[in-house]
Specification:
single chain, 2 domains, 9-stranded mixed β-sheet, about 30% strand, Alpha-Beta Plaits, globular, alpha+beta
Amino acid sequence: MKENVAVTEKCYYVFYKPPGILSQMSTDQRKKKTLREVLDVAEGVQAIGRLDEDSEGLLLLTNDKVFNHDTLQVKKLEKEYWVQVVGVPTTDDIDQWQQGVSIQQRGETYLTKPCVVKLLQEPVAVVTRVPHLLKHQQKSSAWLSITLLEGKNRQVRKMTAALGFPTVRLIRVRFGKILLGNMVPGELRQIEKPW
């Protein structure tokens, strides 16, 4: 007689990760807030890729391990970020980012791959938040759209800093064809398998 085996249904979510939360389900040793503390999702659900603690925006989650692996390793999907930086970059700065800049990755110099960078016109349609780096500064700032096909650790922040423009706010607004749209921080939506 065959035993009944529980079949785990594959599920997929889009989450607007607020700043101040680690993109992991496991408890953090340093007592930092993790996804497990703010989400009520099926067992085994994990983030596809990461957004660092200070970053916010679109995070995909699933319990489909094959889909997770393929999305990160095979598909090489575009990821678009809206990035607020201290200072106003010139056309030359934008050209340099698009061609690739040298950043440090694990103690070694890494040349970023070509990407698409655009200066956004204000006001950018995002939930208002005063980034901590801007609170005490009287400097001007600008918003950029940066679209990458890669995703090294803190890459966007390192890229902007490499040319003297510290990132003060970073929001992922697109992952492949999935858009953040009008979601608000902390909002979770279940979706169909996206690709």
